[in-house]
Amino acid sequence: MKTIYIDFTALGDYEDFYAQLKEKIKLPDHFGDNLDALSDIISGELEMPLHLEFVNMSVDQLETFEDLLTTLEDAEDQVEDFTFTYFLEQFEDDDEEETKEE
Fold this sequence. Notes:
The protein has helices at 14-24, 35-44, 59-64, 66-78, 94-101, and strands at residues 2-7, 50-57, 82-88. Helix 2 (35-44) packs parallel to helix 4. It is α/β, with parallel strands linked by helices. The protein has a single domain (2-101), classed as Barstar-like (Barnase, Chain D). The radius of gyration is 16 Å and the shape is globular. It comes from Chryseobacterium gilvum.
């Protein structure tokens, strides 16, 4: 299964997301940067099996990209051999670091 990783560390908006997606996946020339187009290519034009994984999402990005997450969760339910996951960025607790240094 092919896995595509999208790193949200430097993503601020949908324009940033689609730019990174286009770097990782060869999209058709007619692809429009919108959720309907994304859903269409997942359901008919991308080679499966495919796993799309978002890494380093912030809590704020969960809200910003809520419609994207919903679209991909729906695609996962509807398209055989397509899976999707996302992971929040991890922060170390400053108190833990101080304790380790002592």
